[in-house]
């Protein structure tokens, strides 16, 4: 038993070693995606292209505009002279936001009335639009506070009587850095994509080349084959987890407050589930094309329905049920918690336990299916 | 091995369906020790299915298979050490060397480390591959790959060797070497069960089963199968064999015609009686210089006639 397992391992490592592109394929796409996410993926909205139409030409209107300019969130791409200009800017996509100050703005303010301000937003990208509108609200509130000398929070602006003061202090990510959110999440996401496809393809390739049939006529036991096949990818997966963690730590300076051992435990259980999934896919595919299609079909929903970018709480109930069988969901909780919150097994044990259970079920299924797969 | 183990392979009432298609229906085969038993039949006749069932990787829907006294259907794992199965394309790891491939399969079949080296050397020598031990399997020629497959299949000294079209796509020289190895194995008492598309190889088997549509139609030694052919075989050699083939249609007493390249093999009910009539018909149709001579039927004639692949079906007769 031990000899056969060892020779399976030896063969896998030898094949990997002989493949001149193996190292490249394992490391380069991973790093590319890591840096792409580290630098490019952000929810923050800055430099919003803005078109301004000031029909009031007053000191007050200019004061409001300078408040917009001062934040750096808005870039003025056009100082329009008519409503038609503004419409054209938004239609053509030159501007995402248009600020229109109508004539009589200053007069209304001076008379103690509410000065109307029109803001048009291109809602094509709903997320950007929403965030930009949030900024607009804050800037206007600030402007109002500066004029009256009273601090009024945006939400309470205009309300009379009791005033509530909001002091924001986010925990775990004080600067609300998107990068701190994304990079720990990438550990699970990128490893899942790599490990599932590597495992699935490795078995299907043996089927295509005919070595699988050869192995099946030998007295090898399914568990020996599955373990021999999965073990190298387990270690590759751990290596990838380590690589992303190190780059996150030393290049992007993401704090790592928790215990590396909890991380190792979480990664091991997660990899077990990912390997089980890959092996299961391989027993369902006859050719590499099928494996490719199936892999895409399975891994993408796992990615979307994991909470990596889109909050699970906002999903419809049926989609939320699916996330319960998604190992990535639990590993995202673990990685983010270990990195940013520094909590340990006392808090994370339910997530760890579910990952272990999913891993055991997926692995068990693939072992059961393996023997029959020539029929 | 006891005396009664002379029957090494025994298949009884074997049936296998794939969905609505019956790939194998009621196949019975018995193979004695040291036989080279050949399976011939058109594509899709069920040859590979029978071999896979014997190798224990495909379950029959009905029937029994015994190999060296082990019930293959019930206990495939106990049968596997006695047997080696080489599919049409033996699975080699192309990125691994010849020696590494052998090592891999030797370990898989639990060949003790002590004997492994010596046995590998002997087999490589027999296959003429000893100079290529360090070469990657992917860089071998087609014939060499097939021989390496055989070496890997033989490394655990199986008592029964199952070969599915082992020489398809292999050049004639390598094929001859391959058969040299097989004869050597038979000397050692290895039983060989193979399928082949080559009729010259079929003639080398000790017994043959002609398989068609999942059924064994005939099963006997090549010599006795030839005797099943009704009538006699005449070779009509001429410059324009195609014209001769066409000209001989409908001549009384002609049971079958097979165009062979430079000649037409014509099966007649009585050679002496029909030869003049054939000559007359050829002359009448303007086919000149035709020589008509009796020939020994080859397995191909038997195959075509008995399995009904000939343009004119043999008039039954046998069985």
Topology diagram in text:
The complex is a heterodimer of chains A (375) and B (319).
Chain A: H1 2-18, H2 22-40, E1 48-54, H3 59-71, E2 74-80, H4 83-91, E3 97-101, H5 105-110, E4 117-121, H6 126-148, H7 178-209, H8 211-216, H9 222-250, H10 260-283, H11 288-304, H12 317-324, H13 327-341, H14 345-372
Parallel strand pairs in A: 1-2, 1-3
Antiparallel strand pairs in A: 3-4
Chain B: E1 7-18, E2 21-32, E3 36-40, H1 47-55, E4 62-67, E5 70-71, H2 76-79, E6 83-86, H3 98-108, H4 113-127, H5 142-154, E7 160-164, H6 172-187, E8 191-195, H7 199-203, E9 207-212, E10 215-220, H8 222-227, E11 232-237, H9 241-247, E12 254-259, E13 263-268, H10 271-284, E14 291-294, H11 299-306
Parallel strand pairs in B: 3-8, 3-9, 6-7, 7-8
Antiparallel strand pairs in B: 1-2, 1-4, 4-5, 9-10, 11-13, 11-14, 12-13
How is this structure best described in words?
The complex is a heterodimer of chains A (375) and B (319). Chain A contains 14 helices and 4 strands. With 375 residues, chain A is an alpha/beta fold. Chain A has 2 domains: 48-156, abc type-2 transporter like fold, CATH 3.40.1710; 175-372, no CATH class. A 4-stranded mixed β-sheet of chain A has the order 2-1-3-4, with helices on both faces. In chain A, helix 3 (59-71) packs across helix 6. The longest helix of chain A has 32 residues, at 178-209. In chain B, helix 3 packs parallel to helix 5 and helix 4 (113-127) packs antiparallel against helix 5. Chain B is built from 11 helices and 14 strands. The model of chain B is unreliable at 310-319 (pLDDT under 50). Chain B is globular. Chain B has 2 domains: 3-220, P-loop containing nucleotide triphosphate hydrolases (Rossmann fold); 228-306, Alpha-Beta Plaits (2-Layer Sandwich). The chains are: A alpha/beta (375), B alpha/beta (319).
